[in-house]
Amino acid sequence: MTLILLGIFIVVGILALAQKYPQIQNYRWLLAAALLLVFVLAAMVKIVPPGRVGVLILFGKVHDCIPAGLHFVNPLLFMELMNVRTQEIFEHAEAPSKEGLNMVIEVSCLFHLIPAEAPRVFSLIGPNYEQVVVKPQFRAAIRGITVKHEAKDLYTSSRELIASEIFAGLADDLQKRGIEVEKILLRRVQLPTAIVEAINAKLAADQEAQRMRFILDKEKQEAERKRIEAQGIQDFQRIVAQGLTDQLLRWKGIEATRALAESANSKIVIVGGRDGLPLILNTGPDISPQKKD
């Protein structure tokens, strides 16, 4: 539109100059038409850079949007560029906890404009949708979620749960407005010093309690192992005792006597010993070590 208006002004100027300079009088309309055609063709060409979409506007009414690239459109259309790349909002805020403690929290929100929703966003919100919608909604979501949790939850492993709740609360509201939330990053939480020390002491106590429970479980397992081992020894002794009879012992004694009698060592065998077994006396040299004076 701007180029067309500029072309019209130039054409009017050429026609006015033609009246003062007779030498271009015969070519004034041809020259004016050529210049006007150039400006019209230039107005038809629209180039949308990467990461943007072009919202087309005709006489104050939004019509459609075009993606990145080179396009030929109605020369009367005006184009407004809208960013559809991933953007970040960083929020450094003081938010209350469930106990009423004021905490300093740093959170980032990654989001982008849905390309197909660019005309509606431009019509209802405008090109500055980040400041108008995203930031206020983001701040409200942070305070709405932190007030439901205790301060220790923001300091321990529950941080991911809180970030997920902020994402869930924010994504639905912005999705209805044509903006998609990608991720919520909970960067830093600063609590009062007394609260941090109390949380650390509680965590240390919990770790110590878990260690003691582990030791007790280990001792119980060791006691159970020893009981099973003792039971096995007792069962073995009972089984062996049941199998040791007088006849078996006499038979083993006879076998031992026979083996000794057949050996080459000097011995005296006395028949008629106790339990009917012979007595064997060694008459060979004493090979035990002698004491030295």
Structure explained in plain terms:
This protein has about 290 residues and is an alpha+beta fold. The protein has three domains: about 1-85, no CATH class; about 85-190, Tetrahydropterin Synthase, Chain A; about 255-280, no CATH class. The protein is about 50% helix and about 25% strand. It is built from eight helices and ten strands. It has helices at about 1-20, 30-45, 120-125, 130-145, 150-155, 160-175, 195-245, 245-260, and strands at about 45-50, 50-60, 60-65, 70, 80-85, 85-95, 100-115, 180-190, 265-270, 280. The strands form four sheets. Strands 3-2-5 form a three-stranded antiparallel sheet, covered by helices on one side. A hairpin with an 8-residue loop joins β9 and β10 (about 280). α1 (about 1-20) packs antiparallel against α2 (about 30-45). The protein is elongated, with a radius of gyration of 50 Å. The chain starts with a helix and ends in an 11-residue tail after the last strand.
